[in-house]
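Annex B. Sample input.
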Amino acid sequence: KKEKKKKAEKGSRKPGQSRQVTDETMTLVTRDKTLRAFDKGAEITFKLVVKKLEEVIATRGKKAHHAEDQIKLVEQIDEVIVEHNFGPVLRSKLFLSQIVLLFEYNTRVANCMKVERWTKALHYLRELVLLLQKNTDITLKETNKEEQLETRSYKEEEEESSDNSCYLVHGCIISTLERMDDEYTKILQNIDPHSVEYVERLQDEAKVCYLFELLCQYLETKGASPIDRCRAYLRAIEHLYYRFDPSAVAGGDTSESSAVDNVVSTNSVGDVMNGDNKTADEPSKDDWQLARRPKKKSFGEMQRLCQFIYPETSEGANRYRTRAILCHMYYLAMHDHWHRARDLMLMSYLQTSIDSADSRTQILFNRAMVQLGLCAFRQGLIRDAHQALSDLMATNRVKELLAQGLMSTRYERTPEEEQMERMRQLPYHMHVNVDLVECVYLVSAMLSDVHCCIAHYPDGRRKMISKNFHYVLKASEKQTLVGPPESMRDHIVAASKALFVGDWKKCVANVINLKINTRIWDLFYNGDKVKEMLTEKIKVESLRTFLFGHSSIYESLSLGRLARQFDLDGSTINQVINKMILSEELMASIDDPSQCIIMHRTEPSRLRNLSLKLSEKVLLLSEFNERLSESKSTVLPNVNKGASSQPATGSSAFPTRRQNARLASTSKVY
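Annex B, continued. Sample output.
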C-alpha cells in the first residue's frame, strides 16, 4: 500500500514541486511562483532596498536558494528602484549583481549559457554601459571597499551642485564584457553551423561589437588606465580583423565598395532590427538603433586601435601587443596589402618567439601566416606564397593547427584534454577554407618545383623544394590505372605532368575548369584576376621547362616560334630568356638580327650520358682484346741457337706502362 501511495504521489507531482518528509506526514511543497521582494504594505525606503539587495547577493550559490528565484527577485528590486527613483548608483550595483547571477546560473549542467539568459545579460550590460556614460561620477573598481551609499534620492543629489563626490562601486565592466564575449563564443561552438539557429545567433554579433564600441568610448572619456584600454581595444580588434571590407582592398573601387556597404548594412543589421520575438525581459530590438549608427571605415578603425596598443610597455601588455600585431597582419593580408603585412611580420620578430606563447596566440599566428600566403599568391608572388604555407602544410594537421577541427591521433585523449581542445575551436564563420589553402600550396609548389626537377634530371636526382608535393606525385605514379582527375589533388597532379612536357594548354585546363573554379578560385574576391595571373604564370613556367628539357636537342630556336607556341608576347619571351641566361640556368645567347636563341653549351640528356659511357667501355674492351691477340701471335727468340734476346721487329711482347695502366682501369670496370 505504501509503494502504491508513493507511485500515485510521484505521478501526480507537477514540475517544480519537491517532496518534503516530516515526522508526522508526507507533504508536497511547491516552489512559490509568486515571489515578492517586499511585503505588501511595507514602506519602501532606500535602506530597505539596499538591505534586500545585499541579502539576495549573500545567498548567491547556496543550495537552499534557487538561482531562478534570485533573478526574479533582483528584477523586482529593479522595478522598485526605477519607480521610486533611488538613483543610478544603486541601479548600477543591481545590474552587476543581475549579470553575475545570469552567468552563474546552471553552469555545471551545460557547456554554455542558454540563449535567453545570455540575451538578458546582454541587455543589462548595455543598460549598465549607457548608465556609466551618462553618470560620470560613478566609478567601477575591483576593490572590496565601497563608499557608503547615501539614503537620499538621486534628484536631491543633482540639486546640490556643490557636491562633486565620486561613488565607487565594486565591479569591473571590462571583465564582465569579456565574460559575455566568451559565453557568446561558447554558444556558437555548441550550435550546428549549418542550421538556421546559427545564422540567427550570428546576427547578435552586431550587438556585441556595439557594446565594445560603447565601452571604448566610455574608457576614453573616463581617462582609464592604458592597460584597461588595451584590453577593451583588443576585444574590439578580435571582432573586426577577420571581416572582409571591400573598401579596404588595396586599389579597390570606391563605388563598388559603397554599394557593398549598403547591402551589408541593410541586410545583416536590418535583419537584426526587424525581429518580432519580444519578451518582457528582453528589450525591443529597435532600442539598439544599430542601423542608425554611422558606418565607420574598418581600415582606419583597425589602424587606430592597433596604433594605441603597439607602444604600450606596461606589465601584461606584451600579450595584447602580440595579438594586436597578428590581427592587424591578418587584416592587411586579407585586403591585399602584401608589403605592409610582410613588413609587420618581419619587424615584430614573432616567428622567433611564437613558440613560447599560449595556444590561442599560436593559433592566431597560424591563421595570419595562412592569410599572408594567400595574399602573396593573389599578388603573383608564387615563391613567397609557397614559403609562407610550407611549414603549416608539411605537418598534415592543418585543421588542428588552425583550430577548425580535431584530427584522429594514435594516442587517445583524456576527456579533459578533448574538452580543452574543443574549447579552443573557432566558430564556423571565422574558419579559413582548408581546400583553398591546400590548392594554393600545391599550385605554388608545382610552379616552383617542376623546372628544378627538369634542370637536375641529367644528374639522376631531383632537387625537392616541397616534399609534400613530391609525395603527391609519387602516390599518383604508384597507381596501376590512372583515370580522369576527380578530386582537387588529381587535377593538380595532371597539371604537373602536362607542365613537365611543356604543354601549357593542358595544364591550364586541369587547373582552371568549372569544378575547380566553383570550389577554389571563385572564393577569392577578385577571382577573374587570379585566374588570369595563374594562366600567365603557367605559360611562363611551361616556357622555362621547355627550354630546360630541349636545350640539349636544339642548336637554335626562333623567338617568334616560342611566342606562338606559348601565346606570349615578345617582351615577355625576351625577359624570361634573359633572366635564365643571367642566372646561368641556360647556356645560350640571343641573336637580335635573326631573332633566334643560339645554344652555346648544351647539357647532354641522361640517355646520351649512358650511351657515351657504354661506348667508352666497349672501346676499351676492344683494345684490350687486340693487345691480347697480338701478344699471343708474337714469335719468341730461340735461346739455344744464340739468337738475340730482342723481340721481333714491328711488335712488342709486353705492353708499355701506359698500356698497363689502361688495362688495369679496364679490368676494374669489368
